[in-house]
Specification:
Blueprint: H1 2-19, H2 22-40, H3 45-65, H4 70-77, H5 81-85, H6 91-120, H7 129-154, H8 160-186, H9 193-222
Helix pairs in contact: 1-6, 2-3, 2-6, 3-6, 3-8, 6-7, 6-9, 7-8, 7-9, 8-9
């Protein structure tokens, strides 16, 4: 099973490396939005540090929307989706393979955007890398888990990108809120129990979305 999962992940990663469709577009959009926001953000240092976390995760979310579901939509357009479903692997395993690919793509964006906001807005996020890594991983999985499921559902429709945005943004509100507040509190000198409460909220919604994707992806493959 691990070999089959790795084959699907490797297939998508090699395809993206050769086509270079998702990564350049996502990274360029993320860097451009981050630069424009940071350039126009003229606030006192204390207020700027408070707003940096929300703007950082909003940038990550906007850039991620344009890549979630792209691999499935491309496979549907090329007629490869039906052949992939004949591969001896369960729909749940296929979901986790697509989730892993999207998580890697989003992680590449996070490695650029989060340090950029930390440096430009002069926030001490990088001083506590373990806590920042925890929030980044949970936020990544929270976005990609529901994005992979909804991206597969909306692919093949006429307005797949617009439909994905309408379905995805309301679902991501608790994830973005938890990730933004947890990231903002990292910048404080002394972390209080409030930070752990936001991390728990973020982890709870991430767990719910991953479980929902694992359970509901079988219905997507039957459509």
């Amino acid at each position: 099973m691990a070999a089959k999962l790795w084959w699907i992940i490797q297939k998508d990663m090699v395809s993206e490396y050769r086509a270079r469709q998702a990564w350049p577009r996502m990274l360029l959009l993320g860097i451009l939005v981050a630069f424009l926001i940071s350039y126009q953000l003229v606030l006192p240092p204390s207020q700027q540090q408070r707003a940096a976390a929300s703007l950082c995760w909003l940038t990550i979310c906007l850039a991620a929307i344009f890549t979630l579901g792209q691999s499935i939509e491309k496979e549907r357009d090329d007629g490869c989706w039906d052949a992939l479903l004949l591969y001896p692997i369960t729909p749940q395993s296929l979901y986790f393979a697509k989730l892993a690919v999207n998580a890697v793509n989003l992680a590449a964006l996070q490695l650029v955007v989060i340090p950029f906001f930390a440096l430009v807005c002069d926030t001490p996020w990088l001083d506590v890398p373990a806590k920042l890594f925890t929030v980044a991983v949970l936020g990544n999985l929270g976005i990609t888990s529901v994005g992979t499921l909804l991206g597969a559902m909306s692919s093949g429709t006429r307005q797949s990108q617009g439909l994905l945005v309408l379905l995805l943004l309301p679902m991501l509100v608790p994830v973005l809120l938890g990730a933004s507040e947890a990231t903002r509190l990292i910048g404080q000198t002394h972390l209080s129990s409030t930070w752990w409460n936001w991390v728990q909220l973020l982890g709870a919604f991430t767990t719910v979305y991953v479980t929902a994707g694992w359970m509901l992806f079988v219905f997507v493959t039957e459509d």
